[in-house]
């Protein structure tokens, strides 16, 4: 598929959705209308209108049983809506709905990685025109922090050049230098990311914009290898796999929240505690994360992590046990 075809696909879908939303009230007002006449009014071919009608047959209200779906009757080349499933008026937005759509579209237009920005801006212009004075309401739409950095990285990516990054890796608590070949920018779970081929790791990596300490645009073009495949981020950035360390925890009532915020492989609910297994990026990250959870979480495995946390706790206790030098008296 060519870039032109990819750009046309969202527009065609949006046009069809608008046509379907207005097709039911149009047909209700014209029972028994000829298909050819309706197609001419709507500016589509007979074939396209018949395909739209076939799609309407499986549309309706949640439940999707008898009485929930749109129904129609054909008499030769004439069509009549016999059940509208409640879709009996063209779409009309009240002021609150119009303003909510304007705000949502403004936010979407500012989101990195959106490839149909022109379609979003066209839709926004139409809704703002229909909303009238509401579109001028004093509502400021801003993405999370790092706006200047985000705009600078986006401009560098659009230039098509490779980048030299100074990047902080939270999982290993270290800052590294690396050269990357940008592939795209995207927003996942409220964070902006640069996805690029990392020459140091020799693989596709996701770099959080707020963790890029500095970057330099290089003269050479961005050239990801043929095998550089974008990540599937439909379920988030972190995709635990069997190659990652497996950690087993004994979790009390106060620590059960981690099973809702982090991917876990298994939860065994015992009367007093839960036994939780989860994959982690590395044991260094797990040590820092689990050491801060307090007595509600106890590490069961692997032994290396148990020993790391025991050693860290012992060192901390020794620091408290050591006598502290007396503060000098005032005036001396």
Automatic annotation (TrEMBL):
Residue ranges crossing the lipid bilayer per the database entry: none
Domain annotation PafC HTH: ranges: 15-128
Residue stretches making up the WCX domain: 246-317
A Pfam match: HTH_PafC
InterPro entries: CBASS_pafABC_assoc_protein, PafC-like, PafC_HTH, WCX_dom, WYL_dom
Domain WYL: 149-215
Entries under PANTHER family matching the protein: PROTEIN PAFC, PTHR34580
This protein's name: YafY family transcriptional regulator
